[in-house]
Amino acid sequence: MNSKEDQIKKVLTSFPDYVDYVWNSIGLPNATPIQKDIANTLQEGNRRLLIQAFRGLGKTYLSGAYATWRLLRDPNEKILIVSASGPHAVAISTFIKKLINEVPLLEHLKGRSDQRDSVMAFDVDGCRATVQPSVKCLGINSQLQGNRASLLIADDIETSINCATETMRAKILQQINEFDSILQTTDNASILSLGTPQTGDSIYGRFVDKGFLVRIWPSRIPEEPEVYQGRLAPYIEDMIAKGEPVGTPTDTRFLDADLLEREGSVGKTYYKLQYQLDTTLSDADKYPLKQEDLIVMDIPKDKGPIGVSYSSGRDTLLDIPNIGFTGDTLHGPLYIDKEYTDYQFSIMAIDPSGRGADEMGYAVIKYLHGKIYIVACGGLQGGYDNDNLFKLASIAKAHSVQKIVTESNFGDGMFDQLLRPILKKVYPCSIEEVRSSKQKELRIIDTMEPLLNQHKLIIDRQLLTGDIEGSLRDPQALSYGLVYQLTHITRTRGCLRHDDRLDALAIVLAAIVEMVGIDEDDAMKEFKDQELQDQLDKFIGDLTNPKWHNSSLGMS
Predict the structure, then answer these.
(1) Beta strands 371-380; 340-342: pairing state
(2) 544 vs 446, residue with greater confidence
(3) Is the pLDDT of residue 170 over 60?
(4) Is residue 248 domain-shared with residue 365, that is, in the same domain?
(5) Hey, how many other C-beta atoms are within 10 angstroms of the C-beta on 141?
(6) H or E segment and range at residue 82
(7) Dihedrals φ, ψ of 491, to 5°?
(8) What is the CATH number of the domain that holds 417?
């Protein structure tokens, strides 16, 4: 038997070897040990299998490769791809077509001119003519009845949007119940589900009851393996048994720094769900915004330090009453640069609800070198009366804001029309409406959690202590306080009695992030480069100045 025949036999009998062959054929790096482990699990041929792997691992590529491996072994396979949306399912189907077109061993599967050939549904050469195409893709909310498959691939059917409520999750689970009626009765017929949990009440937690074998590959060696209830992949179990320290990356492609960057980007709660695949949210996880992630300091009015560094150590611990949860402390900066410069931006946001028991929330921030300085945040009762409008205009003037952004979901722009003439009298500046259709609690947390995790937010000490003292002085006013709202918000709709101040802060933070992005290192480098250039320009200007030149020669 020649080497080519040996290779064909090898990839036909071993899916991990097939993955290596395919990856090399299309120019991808060799499969990592964890990808090989998933491939081994796929080869076992479990009739119902749920693979939970962290984002970025390549599980969708593996599922596409698995589909072509099944077709290579039997061109009469009927593969149905179901995803959260039609476009994502199409992306998987497109990848399968790419493999058939580009991988030499699969060339004979290219469809003939008389066969179906679209990304939504296509046939492979060598298959029997049937109503069901070789490969078909659908969204999870599509009409599933009437389809038949020997391999059903359910890829990322849960998203943060389609499973946001219990009712929505129940609808998805009802669709999943249709899978069994779709599956053929052949010996090799199987359902392969791949996904990442999006909520603490993930639908994937109910797959065991539906007869699925569940295997989980988190991004790091978990601190509490027992929370996975014996569903960790053997590969991960082996790493634990060999004494790999807690927190060790499980995939060789991801360094510790890479994962820390991702955690900072998505937030601790989402990282726990999407990278550690841990749906057991503690009380601390349920309240994702931590006051300990703030930097507390006296903020100058017109200029800020070119650099401020964070610390959570005992040396920076502040003696300020804690109205958050136990252990959630407040800290001053570790270091403040002695050099100061003008703030780059100052923006104000207003949440113009202010009816009944609600407040009209406002917040003012200033921006410098990747840090966001919270200089004002409060609430006004009494709705849209002139006194409140003048107060807001005066606050904008006091902080020299360049722009005011307002939440437009309430009043259809009426608030802006009332505020504009007041601003014209008191402090002319631009005003802009912003609108969001996202659930308020999710919008607030998704905006603020990454900034807090990366310690980008600096709050004025006087503002903070005034807010806390006001909350403690009057228990009835506790729920109105910014710090209380920040520390007690959850992802549950309507979790806070009042959220106006926190909402205003989230609105202005979203505006500044959209305007400038947040990259502290780049901002500092740009500042230093400009400072050096200014010094150089001044030096060259002095050298070329005739007065300086004559003076240096003693001729003035």
Answers:
(1) unpaired
(2) 446
(3) yes
(4) no
(5) 15
(6) strand 79-83
(7) -85, 0
(8) 3.30.420.240
